[in-house]
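Prompt: I keep going back and forth on a fold encoding question. Comparing notes only helps if you start from a blank page. Show me how you would write down a chain together with its backbone fold. Please set it down just below, with no commentary around it:
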Amino acid sequence: MRRVSVVGNTGSGKSTLARALAGRLGVPWLELDSIFHMPGWTPRPREEFRAEVERFTAADGWVVDGNYSAVRDLVWSRADTVVWIDLPRRTVMRRLLNRTLRRMATGAELWNGNKESFRFLLDKDESIIRYAWLNHAAYRARYREAAADPANAHLRFVRVASRADAERLTRNDRN
């Protein structure tokens, strides 16, 4: 395991796990959100986004976290492992709500000057909470199907269904 894609629902702990895994493996880590979201939450143009990801994944070892279909082909064609975080919906929602409220209360900057605001809780079209709730089953189905797809036979899929699974993955030297 040297080139790892970490995927899962919003708020599932992708970045936390990816950071720990990159540290254990001694490789760089890229949070796709950090290069996709430009100031004012403006999306980076697709070709620029792909070029950044292509440069990063050209290395011998790395960990990338995120679910962006615009770059999945690049990441997965170069990855050797996909770590799929598949936690219960109640766990994801609790973590996401706590994280969002904490970020709003502290005014924490995420990427490129962007901060979470109350619209991420309340606005029907912008709510990260609503998005995570509505898409939980879709993420589960997407990655279950991807793991079974012969086109992905070059990838080792590791399903993380609990905190214990995540802890084993980040401390196990034989992955």
User: Anything to note?
Assistant: The beta strands are 3-8, 29-31, 37-38, 42-43, 62-65, 81-85, 156-160. The first strand starts at residue 3 and ends at 8. The chain is about 50% helix and 15% strand.
